[in-house]
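[Automated response] Your request has been received and processed.

Submitted sequence:
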Amino acid sequence: MIPKVLPTYARADFALERGEGPLAYTAEGRRFLDFGAGVAVNVLGHAHPHLIKALTDQASKIWHSSNLYRIEGQERLGERLTQATFADTVFFTNSGVEAIECALKMARKYFAHTGQPQRYRTITFEGAFHGRTLAAIAAGGQKKYLDGFGPKADGFDQVPFGDHEALKAAIGPETAAILVEPIQGEGGIRVVPDVCLRGLRNLCDEHGLLLILDEIQTGIGRTGKLFAHEWAGITPDIMAVAKGLGGGFPVGACLATERAAQGMTAGSHGTTFGGNPLAMAVANAVLDVVLAPEFLDHVREMANVLTQQLAMIRDRHPKVIAELRGRGLMQGLRLHADYRNTDLIAEMHARGLLTISAGDNVVRILPPLIINTPHVREAVSIIDEACANVRPAESTKPI
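Generated structure:
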């Protein structure tokens, strides 16, 4: 008999009831150090008092009015995001994949608006993950997400990750945009080098393409900058963000330059719930903290500590860990083929640490940005123990 909740997730067999900062607890009192942060969402940890106040204050006023009317929280958040980034305008959504859909529609609309409707195709990269709508799984191109959902949506041309010649060869008269994650999250914490991001920007300029960045996972301070592309000194034309923007409340955004957004006029796109007053109150509260002086300095300091400690663990367990990847507080441990990331994660769960799997046999480490050195030391100690106790895949049963 099918469960009452559709069984599309392979869930761990425990439920988190409450949390405080980087800690989470089950109803039975089991304690976890949360270095998954709800898949890079809880940038300020659990139950942050400033977010609680913002949400409860707004909840006593108005929850929903629809986008038929002005929403003051949208105007304030839009002003702050455009001041802090390359963008001139913002469209608010409920999720990251909706921000991606908006970005893809905007790119196509730009070329239609400028008299080039034949340019609608987007170049993407193998290993990418942009969400689970039909368009997003087509953009990502991963077989495990495409299987069983009929013909792949048209309009996407994939090239191998890091293959510059294949990328150049894929550009044709129908190409409108290049879509890329500065760091592939689901794909295994694969970092696009800064020089390559600069090359993508130059390539788009040379061929008159739009550069779309998927910073859903890398944005809102995750890498030590507000957005990861800042490390490369470039700006996109369109950018999708979500996850950390709401600190745990569902919210996403599509940011764009005035030029890229010029075709998006009244009626060209919309949403019922996107940018509702509750979401805007929480997202503005997140920015209050993240944009405060020295916050990102703290993220970079903790990132240095975490990276150094993880490098020591890699050196202590060379038979288990093949490679350390990542940037800032977005780190990945790629395991040797003899070991499974899910088995190592289970060992971490047993010792009170939450981490997340990713492609390429990677364990993703995505702590809240408010962690301190003792939290890092505790997490690394657990990872050390887990590596010492995990067994090769052939001697274990699947979990």
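Summary generated for your ticket: The chain has two domains: 16-34+293-395, 50-290. The longest strand covers residues 321-327.
If you did not submit this request, please reply to this message.
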